Amino acid sequence: MEGAQFIDVRSDTVTKPTPEMRKAMFEAEVGDDVFREDPTVLELERQGATLFGKESALFVPTGTMGNLVSIMAHCMGRGQEILVGDESHINIYEQGGAAQLAGVHTRTLRTYPDGTFDIEELVRKIRPTDDIHQPTTALICLENTHNRCGGAVLPVKFVKKVGQIAQEHNIPVHMDGARIMNAATKLGVPAASILEDCASVSACLSKGLGAPAGTLVAGSSEFISRVLRCRKALGGGMRQVGVLAAAGLVAINTMVNRLADDHKHAQLVAKAINDRKSENISVDKDKVQTNIILINVNPKVISPQMFAQRLKQVRFMEDVSRTRSSQKYKTHLHLTPGRIDVVKKIVY
Ligand SMILES: *Cc1c(COP(=O)(O)O)cnc(C)c1O
């Protein structure tokens, strides 16, 4: 990022690999991972399983594939259904892959602003097992931190409650934990403890953790052996992919501790905006829990196009095309405190 003129906080996916990652990638020992012979991938999977408190883990190309292979591996039968929040990434941003590619029916629960949903609605929507007219409920999905809810961390009690109900009905819980390490950081607990009630998790290495690509799926060994088959069917079996896993190892070993900085910087951005006391641009400070900032812009005074233009003008954002539908920004390792001052110029 040296010499970069623009601050790009469209997403925490825009980060480039650190010099340490580049070095690890250069030096990585590799093998054919479809033959399960890439030592660097296997090491990442071992460490990932430990990190998430599960028996096994599997490296997959993306978070979208991580969720999809998890859904496929949990729903191997016909006529199966998953329960997901209506504002979840799985429901909004994954092209309906569960239906399109896995033949799985999706039933939604209304997402509350804090990323949770109503427990009574959950119970009501679990299908009876003795009615041949209805699909069978095969999986409940959670998301932590919750992307569209502005990086909200799911309350521990809520996850526990969902886990308890799932267990009573013998239904597994999958955690879309793209940013599970942000949740763990915010709560000050190991990721494994958040995931105690979840049969599986999909966790991105390429967001706040800064790796160039890759996601870990974790669960029981039996589950992961099914995930391995599903990954292959989707074309996600990669070969000498230790070059990417090497960066993933640097990510989980050295990048977790600095996530607290991203959260602090998000607070600073929110404060810088609110300090201007504008009637038209503000941030609900209490909603900034982790690294995502939702900026409220009064659409009657400032159109999305005007706002995007403003961001470009103060060199906050280069690509204005993607800012039109959303005022959602994410702090990451390239956003240093010195650069946050620029934020003040946005508000007018
Ligand atoms: C980013 C994200 C994903 C998917 O990740 P990709 O690697 O972009 O496919 C899944 N779930 C959530 C909550 C995300 O934020």
Can you give me a brief rundown of this structure?
This protein has 348 residues and is an alpha/beta fold.
Largest sheet: 7 strands, mixed
Distance between the termini: 28 Å
Strand order of the largest sheet: 1-7-6-5-4-2-3
Number of helices: 14
CATH top level of the largest domain is Alpha Beta
Give unreliable regions as ranges. none
H/E element order: HHEHEHHEHEHEHHEEHHHEEHEH
Which of globular, elongated, flat, extended, rod-shaped describes the shape?
globular
Estimated radius of gyration: 21 Å
The chain-level structural class is alpha/beta
CATH topology name of the largest domain, in short, is Aspartate Aminotransferase, domain 2
Name the CATH superfamily classification of the largest domain.
Type I PLP-dependent aspartate aminotransferase-like (Major domain)
* Overall structural domain count: 2
What does this structure look like?
Its cofactor is pyridoxal 5'-phosphate. Keywords: Pyridoxal phosphate. Residues 8-295 form the Aromatic amino acid beta-eliminating lyase/threonine aldolase domain. With 348 residues, this protein is of the alpha/beta class. The protein folds into two domains: 19-254, Type I PLP-dependent aspartate aminotransferase-like (Major domain) (Aspartate Aminotransferase, domain 2, 3-Layer(aba) Sandwich); 258-346, Alpha-Beta Complex (Aspartate Aminotransferase, domain 1), CATH 3.90.1150.10. 38% of the residues lie in helices and 14% in strands. It contains 14 helices and ten strands. It has helices spanning 19-27, 39-52, 63-74, 89-92, 97-100, 119-125, 156-168, 180-187, 191-194, 221-233, 242-254, 259-274, 304-313, 337-340, and strands at residues 56-60, 80-85, 105-109, 136-143, 173-176, 200-204, 215-219, 281-283, 292-297, 328-330. The strands form two sheets. The chain has a seven-stranded mixed sheet, sandwiched between helices. α2 (39-52) packs parallel to α11. The structure holds pyridoxal-5'-phosphate (PLP).
